[in-house]
Amino acid sequence: MTKSELIPLRKEPQVAYLSMEIGFDSRIPTYSGGLGVLAGDTLRACADLGVPIIGVTLLSEKGYFRQEIDSDGNQIEHPVDWNISEFLELKGTQASVFIEGREVRVRAWEYFLVGSSGHQVPIYFLDTNVPENSPEDRRITAYLYGGDTRYRLIQEAILGIGGVRLLRALGYLQIRKFHMNEGHAALLILDLLSQEREHGTMESKLVETVRKKCVFTTHTPVPAGHDRFPVEVACAVLKGNFPEQEIMRGCPGGELNLTRLALDHSEYINGVAKKHGEISRGMFPGYSIDSITNGVRAVFWVADPMKELFDQYLPGWRSDPFLLRNALLIPQSGIQHTHQMMKKALVEYVEAKGGKGFREDVFTIGFARRAATYKRADLLFRDPAKLSEIAEKAGALQIVYAGKAHPSDMGGKEVIKRIIQTMRTLQGKIPCIYLADYDVTLAKLLTAGVDLWLNTPRRPQEASGTSGMKACLNGIPNLSVLDGWWIEGHIEGVTGWAIGPRPAMGIEESSDDAKDADDLYHKLGEVIVPLYYNNPAGWSKVMHQTIAINGSFFNSHRMVQQYVLRAYFS
Ligand SMILES: *Cc1c(COP(=O)(O)O)cnc(C)c1O
Q1: Which pLDDT score, from 0 to 100, does residue 147 have?
Q2: Does the model's pTM come out above 0.70?
C-alpha cells in the first residue's frame, strides 16, 4: 500500500474512550503511571491508524505530583504547575453534573493528537475550575487521585457523567461505543440508561441497549483495586443527577461497585494480557471476559538513534511496526553501536543528577515503575552482599531506579526509602542511583539506555506491565517474574530470562520472596552477566531477537487493531 492510500477520510468520531488519566507528553502531567501512558499510546495509535475515536479525561490542573527525594530517602510531593493554555484550547461549551445536590459546571480543554497519516484524535480534559462553582468544587479536577474516597467518587462522577454530557453538548451525537479504560468512568452507564429512558426505550430493553454501547477494560487483578462505595455515599454524592431509585439500581448488594456496574453493562469486556483475562474470569464468574494484551507505540518509544537505524534497514516500520520482525537484517555492530549512544545519554543524565562512578562500559540494570508494594522494587536488594559478590565475580554492575509512590501509600514510600538506604551500603562496590520524578521523558531515557530491564512483581498482580515492552523496542532484554505480558513475551535465553517458575493455570498463585530473590541472583551471576561480558555476539543476538520477536508484537498498532475488530466495530 502506498502512503496516500492510507490517508483516511475525515470521519465523525464513533468511539469515546474515557480514562481517569491520559499520558502522552511529560509537559501535560495528567497521568500517574501505566494506565495513563497506555491510554496515551492507545489514542496515538488510533490517530496513526485513522480510528474515529475521541479521548476524555480529567484536567488534573496540578498534575499528579512532582517527586523530590530527600537525602534520607523520603518522598516529598509538590504540585505541578503547568501552563495549560500553552498546550490545550479552552472550549466555550459546558455541561452540568450534580454533586451532593449542587450544580457543578464542567468545561473542557481540547487537544488534538495528529497521527502519522494526518488523522486527528481530539482529547477533552474536563475542568471544574469555573467561576460559577464554589471554591471547593473548583478544586475537584485539581489533583489526579487526590483526596479521600468521597473525593474519588466525585472525580469519577465528573469523568463518567460529566464526560458523556459534555460530549453531547459538544455535538458528538454519533458515538456508537463508550470504552471505559478501567472502572473509573463507569458512572457514564447511569447517564446512558437515563438518556435511553428519556428517549422512550422500553424498560425491558434499557440494559440491553446500553450494553451494546459499552466496552470495558479491567486492569486490576486484585479485589482491593476495584472502587466500591457504600450506597449512602453513592446516593449522597450523585443525587440530583438521576432519581434515587435509579442510583439504587446501580448499587445491587448495598454498594456501588464500579467494576460490577461496568461488567453488567458492557457487551465487550477484556483483561490486558492473556493471564490477566484468565484471572479476571476467575474473579468475576459468569461474565464473558476476553483479553487483549497491551502494547506500546513504537514510534514514540524507540529512541531517536535507533529510529534512524530502523529507517535504514526496515523502511516502513514507523507506520507498520510489524516490520520489526525483520530486525535480524540489521548488522550486529549497528545495534550495539546505537545502543551505546543511548547508554551514553543515560550515563550523562545520571551524572548530572549526582550519580557517581557510572560508566558506559559497565552492565546496567534498570528498574522503574510506580512504587506499589506488589511490584517488590527492593527484591534485587534483598541480599546486598550477594549482589556485591556477583559484581565482583561475574562482572561489574551499575543500577538505575526510578518511580513514584502514591502520596498516601506509606508502604510504597517505605520501599523507596529502603532501596535508597541499601544503595548507600553498596557505595564503592556498585554505582547506584534512584532518579526522582519518573515520567514519560525519563521512561524513554531508561528503557533505551540500560542493558537489562528488571521486573519483580508478586504474582499474579501485574495485570500486564508495559515498560518492559518499551525496552524490547530498543533491543533491551527483560529479566522478569513470569506474570502479565512477560508470560507471552518470554523465551528463555532468546528474548530474556525468567525469575521463578512458569505460572500454573488458574488463580491460585503466590510468590516466595526468598526463592524469587535466589533465582534472580542465580540468573544474574551465572547466566546474564557472563553472557554480557564474555560473549558479546551472543548478547547482541538476544537484543536482535528481542526487537524481532517482541517489538514487532507488543506494540499499540497490534493492540488497537484487536480493539477495533473485537470491541469497536465487531
Ligand atoms: C510505561 C510507564 C509506566 C508503566 O510501567 P509498568 O512496567 O507497566 O509498571 C509507568 N510510568 C511511566 C512514566 C511509564 O512511561
Answers
A1: 87
A2: yes
